[in-house]
Structure to design on (460 residues):
């Protein structure tokens, strides 16, 4: 897959072929998205932070699939609400950059904890 | 922003400039991601499904920002675990397609409910 | 079971018998709790609000079990952090009552949406 | 507060006084509950497991309040669906006990990871 537009189109076709669009209100999609996010959390819940950085095999495969599911629902929601995800992420990074200036928060765990 | 690679690079630079990488274990990133997913859910929790499809103004802006935050953390996690998000999404769509053949599930809400 | 104290004791004994306490840091328990909350959300994600109020059979059984799991993890966390759940809930209701005085918010959906 | 029944009654009166019952479909309550669960996760997301077990001051207060919010929404949902939370928890502990016999899972992290 070469870019987000192609993903958007593939997800749209997948949903249309199954006539599932009528279930896809933004409200419902936000629920589906957090369910997938929780399946990602579940993969890490009993691991130490160090173990979570060194996953392999079936665990790694499961993590990749949950990440994929999150992106798929996020893409469905973006289509539904006509949001340009990359533009939104770029705008948010700029806003976050103003809120947390590098020189002020650098190396300060407390500042990070407020983040 | 032209593509996911550029987003990946911008997110990486943002985190590096603040020396926040040491907090970013996959375990912690999965927690941050679900917190953002919940902030998205919060925007929709008291709306009807129909209202959720017709948001505007400050509500719409907030929804876009939460979607952006989800993508940013998903991108951080992808960098950390060396996951190609688009390839993972493509593989997952194929797998889902085999699990829910269009001709079998089309127009069947019960099948969808198992999804 | 007659009260929360008996539940607390049963949950504690269950965990101790399996030597699982070493996995039960508050951080990990918060992850386990949100995973169960998501399994509850999953039961409702494709239902209309009206359908969600009229569940029965296997769906109803699943919902009860997810609610039970949430209470069990909440109880584990309360034991771990020495929190009196009923006292905390009572204090929070008083605080919420001051934040949202009945006479001001009554029948005002917008006020509720800020809630 | 002496027991869950008193909490149930207080929560019911709180909601009724504000005429908020019409927003409280089980679907919506499950969303509100996971939002509160995420606010709990947020308190722990950048802490180490050890730090999460040694919280105090404002952090501890915030954690208690999020736990209270979770219990309040769980109680609202239980009232709505006519679920006896303590009985459900007791039944679930018995079911879990059969699924994870102490003698088989004791001290086995892998077994726990399947949990």
């Amino acid at each position: 897959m070469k870019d987000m537009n192609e993903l958007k189109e593939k997800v749209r076709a997948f949903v249309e072929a199954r006539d599932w669009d009528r279930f896809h209100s933004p409200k419902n999609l936000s629920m589906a998205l957090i369910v997938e996010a929780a399946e990602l959390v579940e993969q890490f819940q009993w691991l130490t932070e160090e173990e979570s950085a060194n996953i392999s095999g079936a665990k790694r495969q499961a993590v990749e699939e949950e990440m994929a599911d999150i992106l798929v629902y996020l893409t469905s929601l973006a289509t539904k609400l006509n949001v340009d995800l990359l533009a939104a992420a770029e705008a948010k990074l700029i806003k976050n950059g103003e809120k947390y200036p590098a020189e002020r928060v650098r190396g300060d765990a407390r500042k990070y904890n407020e983040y």
Q: What stands out?
A: The radius of gyration of chain C is 18 Å.
